[in-house]
């Protein structure tokens, strides 16, 4: 089976929040990509439930799951690779409290607990199961239970006194090993906390390889991941997000607890020393360090246990810590079994027990060879914000500026001075607070003649925003020029459309004015002589004047209604009877009708509609004009314009306008309501587009049916006006 070249998507559970952990995750993805010869893309799941849903739906090739998720999905996965920490692929959970306020199982009642997350194994589920196995229910045992999202936040809550106890995963039920884990989270504050209770063990969390991944790729990944920590490359880059030293294929949920396995790639040593460098306790996951067996080292000096080469740097560090009275750290190289390794050593003064005057020092030595081998790509990745040519900044949720690269300070020189009041910061915060829906364009800020398009990403631990600002001034200028050119083109087409739309009402306005002028000339002398005028003559003139006013008003509304494609015009909705409006539109087109077609009417009683009468008149004029223009004037004797109006079974108003013209092709019919879409010469194609806008604005529909050689049918459906009593009830 041939492996695919498509990206492998890996989803991670959401308790990883720190920026540095995201960097290490990216570095891990790059390391895997290089070894697989195939891109590996990693992303954080927003929730544990989301990760499970993606796994269940088969949308990811790989996922980093909790211990429970690994157990649940193992039966249907290609493989599950359990994380190895301290030589074991099982782990426990430790209850942590303040060192100056020690707790026991018996004194837990009434205390406040800070859990990590409801689906976190080491930070919630495992300690809860342990308590329940002892007959203790957390809801009655603790006075307060909080879920804070990450181990660091839970530990910080205990440090600050906001909670009394939290839970932290641990690989061995050993207080000295826990000191190393606490130090990796809290640094110099680690001695302020202490473990006081350990749970039973569970299989570790790890990587779930799904069946979406081809078998060949799955086997390649298994090979890469299980060998990475023993082939000299190491997985030290994972110490931040995963705190692992390797992987082992899962033996299955029911497998017994494993004993630590030897590991040459990420050994570490933890212990306690006295002021003379004598080992009070010394422990290694594999039982070996620096190529030597260190079991049974208690009571012996470091040199006897580790040899001269390994102990000499440690003794120098010990003396420096004793002189300075504070923590010390040293990194050094050492050749072990023919390979040059890099070690990081830390020595920390221990908090003395009450009544104990002896000096005790905590020792932690880690093999960091893998990390050092990856420093160059790590620095290249981490230097991206500094060297990025466009502004990049990080903000707190209150607008506090946490970081800005040099390009940011060059582009926005008043950023520090204005702080949260700066338009860039304000736009980013507004964007985040508003929660813009997916697909909405990114915010753009206009500053000092330049346009900046922002990309805003949420940070969770600690909460904040990462903002990229991209200079899009040239693009905006180009868009403005294109818009202006398009606008001028549209204005030319609109001018032709205005002339076409206004031609008929203008023609009968001029005709009526000419008729009135002729009548006034004819009746001028009798009027001057005081001779009574015939009543019929006056009524004809008044009717002509009324039609003239009506035509002038029609011209006014035509100009207004031509704006409907660009922006919504003012409306004056009222109850409108449809049939008189339709009759009026036919009357306005009577001259055109005489030369084009025979009119067939089929009008029935209609309910009123809520509409603007002028807009409705424009709608019917457009439809009737379109129908007339579809028929050849030379065939007027055979042309038929059929206009029907009736009430549908649903109580809606239906108006049909059907011509006997040439009809439309299916391609032309598909675009009939688009602006400027027309098959006729000298036509702008605006009439039906405007009509569609009017109908949909009234809550109705406009449909078109046509066949070549059979004519076109346009059907308008409008909702009937809501009864007054019904509208009042709706309010």
Automatic annotation (TrEMBL):
Q: What is its EC number?
A: 2.7.13.3
Q: What is the protein's species of origin?
A: Corallococcus aberystwythensis
**Domain of life (superkingdom):** Bacteria
Annotated GO molecular function terms are: phosphorelay sensor kinase activity
Q: Does the keyword Phosphoprotein apply?
A: yes
Keywords on record: Kinase, Phosphoprotein, Transferase
Looking up SUPFAM superfamilies in the UniProt record yields: ATPase domain of HSP90 chaperone/DNA topoisomerase II/histidine kinase, Homodimeric domain of signal transducing histidine kinase, Periplasmic binding protein-like II
Q: Which Pfam families match?
A: HATPase_c (PF02518), HisKA (PF00512), Phosphonate-bd (PF12974)
In this chain the Histidine kinase domain maps to: 497-722
Under InterPro entries, the record lists: HATPase_C_sf (IPR036890), HATPase_dom (IPR003594), His_kinase_dom (IPR005467), HisK_dim/P_dom (IPR003661), HisK_dim/P_sf (IPR036097), Sig_transdc_His_kin-like_C (IPR004358)
Supply the Gene3D superfamilies for this chain: 1.10.287.130, Histidine kinase-like ATPase, C-terminal domain, Periplasmic binding protein-like II
State the protein's name: histidine kinase
The reaction(s) annotated as catalysed by this protein in its Swiss-Prot or TrEMBL entry are: ATP + protein L-histidine = ADP + protein N-phospho-L-histidine
